[in-house]
Amino acid sequence: MLLDATDTLGAAAGAVLDLPAAARAQVATRPARVADMLQVQPLIAGFAEKGLMLPKTLEFLNRNFREFVVAVDGHGTVLGCGAVRVYTAQLAEVASLAVSEDAHGLGVGRRIVQQLEVEAEKLGIGTLFALTLQDGFFHRLGYRTVQKEMFPLKVWADCRSCSKLHACDEIAVVKEVM
């Protein structure tokens, strides 16, 4: 399992956010900082424990923080994250997309994906793809379903280490952003 993306996923194990109305209105997306990875890692770990994502160590996240954008509330609490993982000059993946359960209904997942699309455009990348269990979420953002076999670099890089390799239930989606 490499990616699961929706505003309806559960929170990271043990993570509880109490967002006052004022903080909800102040949700913003921005490029991640190294310090954000201290909040991103447990969010991803909660989904990994449920078999919805591949786990990421803090060391991996610290080394790759530049791939990430985060959604934060008015107090700086990370509500969600996502990454643009580059495979070629024209192809990148929307990866590690996770939204805290307490941030559902705020459009956090949508905002993260839209920010990742902007980041991909800045890099000159024309095509984004994702592997997901929530294809409807991506369809609402203009992605279309395609065969996973269109992304052999992804399969070689990540899928070979996934416990679901021979019984993958993820759906590939793609969008031209340029």
Spell out the blueprint of helices and strands.
Layout (H helix, E strand, L loop, with lengths): L20 H5 L2 E4 L5 H13 L8 H6 L4 E5 L5 E9 L4 E9 L8 H15 L4 E6 L2 H5 L4 E3 L5 H6 L13 E6 L2
Parallel strand pairs: 4-5
Antiparallel strand pairs: 1-2, 2-3, 3-4, 5-7, 6-7
Classified by CATH, the class is Alpha Beta
Output the helix-strand order.
Answer: HEHHEEEHEHEHE
Helical residues, percent = 25-40%
CATH architecture: 3-Layer(aba) Sandwich
Distance between the termini: 28 Å
Number of helices: 6
Structural class label = alpha+beta
Q: C-alpha Rg, in Å?
A: 15 Å
Low-confidence segments = 1-16
State the main characteristics.
178 residues, alpha+beta, 7-stranded mixed β-sheet, 6 helices, 24% strand
Provide an overview of this structure.
- This protein is an alpha+beta fold and 178 residues long.
- Mean pLDDT is 84; it is low at 1-16.
- Strand 4 (91-99), helix 4 and strand 5 form a beta-alpha-beta unit.
- It has helices at residues 21-25, 37-49, 58-63, 108-122, 135-139, 152-157, and strands spanning 28-31, 68-72, 78-86, 91-99, 127-132, 144-146, 171-176.
- The protein has a single domain (21-176), classed as Aminopeptidase (3-Layer(aba) Sandwich).
- The chain has a seven-stranded mixed β-sheet.
